[in-house]
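Bench notes, afternoon.
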Amino acid sequence: MGKRGIQLFDDKGGSFLSISGLGSSPWSQEEDVGQCFPGGAGGLFASVNQMGMGSNGNGGGGIKSVYNDLYEKYLSFVGVNGEEEREMGKKKKRKGWLQLKIKVRNPSLRRLISGGIAGAVSRTAVAPLETIRTHLMVGSSGHSSSEVFQNIMQHDGWTGLFRGNLVNVIRVAPSKAIELFAYDTVNKKLSAAPGEQPKLPIPASLVAGACAGVTSTLCTYPLELVKTRLTIQRGVYKGILDAFMKIMSEEGPGELYRGLAPSLIGVVPYAATNYFAYDSLRKAYRKLAKQEKIGNIETLLIGSAAGAISSSATFPLEVARKHMQVGALSGRQVYRDVLHALASILEKEGVKGLYKGLGPSCMKLVPAAGISFMCYEACKRILVEGDQEA
């Protein structure tokens, strides 16, 4: 159907108002709207062609001026395009939020800083649960979470729940920085671009996670051992340096790496499972939600789920590692290797002994993993290169 219009006065005879397209549903197509209602004004004042009474345009200036004034006063505000209005609203909304941006040009430094902050924040938040978990693993203050908690409160008070946390932060901050940096770096190199064949027969996140765990463990293991000693041996050491010096002088430098084998054996499946689960859950969320960006709450939940999966799968190795780190303290048995530790624990305490402390461990590791991933992703958005997001 052709476009129909209404004209008041013939164009040849000096018309002053024409309304076109009334018979063709002008709202159905953008070009109709543009032709019928220039400037997006809408309403009846669709287009003003000529406001004069004569063909030469003379003698009609007064009427033209009146209509222009009415148009500008009542209808010109509608002339803003809808997309422009939305953009203006978005800009106003963005300005209303406080957005912190710190320029760090080196991408490797951005990852290291983000990982360090993530590790420090997450570990401090769950320090009491970490203390209870460590006591439960070695059976030094009770056989349940409530017994350990009451024992700590009775002897040390609230500060006892954070015993060794400074060492933990000093250890975890660089450890997490190295771990997340190694994971991001290796994963990006091994991951195939969209449309390309995978570079490895197994998921890249598995290999990247294992490499990240091994690298961080080798670099920061002595701090982990000192932290465990400070948590368990009350009043034996005055601080971090005193613990290092006494262990070095009384037990030798090799004591700082006691339990390294089970740690390496345990960290490979743990880190590989953790990062693989995290990467897989993020991809699944993007597919289900049909959006590329993932918010902080979603990252927290995804990271927590990944921590629960990896922690449950590798917990017996963690128990063996803790037993080996404690060493011959208070007449405890000294284990030759991880298999000897696992076999001895299984013989004395059964299967339950291999999972002693799993509850508080998950209570600690699950939120710690979620907080760590959330802080890491948030810090990467804060630390930017120029005007681009990290």
